[in-house]
C-alpha cells in the first residue's frame, strides 16, 4: 500500500468533511509526561478528578487504544460572524458567553465527521482499527496537534496557528496504520505576553501553564460549588467561559469566520440581557439550550453564574427584584444571590449608614417583598 498517497487523500477528505486542516503524528508523547505530572501534583486541575484518574495514559495514546500507531489530528474553525468581538464585555447588563458555546455543541458534530473520515479510509484500505475522539478521552490533544503540524502551544496553553489564530476546535482519529508523519510545528509567541497580563484572575501562572482553580472557564463550567469571593468581581459579566486570553492575542486578527452554521450564535442568545436570562425557569433554560454545550451545567449553575454577573452590573431595581425572587432555591445559590444584592445595594446613592443597614438585612436573609 502507498501510505504517502493515502496520507494525502486523508487530508483532502478531511477538508471535504468540513475540517480546515489535518495532520498526522506518531504516538510518542514521553517528553510531555513530566509536565503533565507536575501540573497534576500542583493541583492545577482543581476538582476535575478525571484529569488525574488515568495517570500517564493521557500521554500514551497506544495504551488508551491498543494497537494505535498514528494520530490524525484535525482542526475546525468556530468563530461565528455574530461574535462582535468583545462588545458583550463592554455591556455590563448583558451576559458574555464564550464564543465556542454560542451555537450547537461541537462534540457530536466533530465526532460524526471524524467517524466519516475513518469510514472513508476503511473504504480505501479495507478493515483496520480506528477510533475518533473529541474531548471524550484522556488524551493530550494540543501536544498531538502541534506534533501533527497544526500549530504551536501558546503561552495561554491553547493551540495557535499564525494563519488563523486560535478560534478552532480539535479532534483526533487514532488509527493502526503506519502513515507518514508531518513535521511538528516550530512556531512560538516570541516576547508577547498579552494573554498572561490580561487574564482577569491571573490564572496563567507560567508560560503555557494554567491553574484551572483560578480560571473563569473552569469556575463557570467545571466547578459546581461556591465560587470564591476573590474571583467574583474579576468575573464581570462572564457567565459561561472566558475568551480574554484569545481576545488580546495578536494572531487572532487573522482568524477566519466559520462556515459551519451550527456554530453561529443561537437566537435565544442574540440579546443576552442578564435579567431576562436569569428569569428563565428550568424548562425554558433546557428548551433554549437544547443541543448547546451550556445545557450540561444545569439550570442552578446557570443561575449561580448569572447572579454574579448581576452583582457586577450597574445598580438596577429590576436586578435586585429578580435576585430576590430566586432566594431559597438552594444554599449555594443563596450565597451568590446575597453577595450580588449586597453589591447592588452598595451602588445606591444613599448614606453609608443606610447602606450598612441594608447589607445587614441581606446577611440575615432579605425578605422577598422587602
Description:
This protein is of the alpha+beta class and 370 residues long. The chain has two domains: 3-272, no CATH class; 273-364, no CATH class. The protein is 39% helix and 11% strand. The protein is built from 16 helices and ten strands. Strand 8 and strand 9 (209-210) form a beta hairpin. Helix 14 runs antiparallel to helix 15 (331-345) and helix 15 (331-345) packs antiparallel against helix 16. One of its GO terms (molecular function) is epoxyqueuosine reductase activity.
Brief characterization of the structure:
This protein is an alpha+beta fold. The chain has helices spanning about 5-15, 35-40, 50-55, 60-65, 105-125, 140-145, 195-200, 215-220, 230-235, 245, 275-280, 280-290, 300-310, 315-325, 330-345, 350-365, and strands spanning about 20-25, 70-75, 95, 130-135, 150-155, 160, 170-175, 205, 210, 240. The strands form four sheets. Strands 1-2-7-4 form a four-stranded antiparallel β-sheet, with helices on both faces. A two-stranded parallel ribbon has the order 3-10.
Q: Keywords for this structure?
A:
370 residues, alpha+beta, four-stranded antiparallel sheet, two-stranded parallel ribbon, elongated
Biggest sheet strand line-up: 1-2-7-4
Question: How many individual β-strands?
Answer: 10
Count of separate structural domains: 2
**Total of DSSP H or I helical runs spanning 4+ residues:** 16
Radius of gyration: 23 Å
Uncertain runs are none
Shape: elongated
First and last CA, distance: 78 Å
Fraction of residues in H or I helices = 25-40%
Describe the main β-sheet briefly. 4 strands, antiparallel
Order of helices and strands: HEHHHEEHEHEEEHEEHHEHHHHHHH
The overall average pLDDT, rounded, is 91
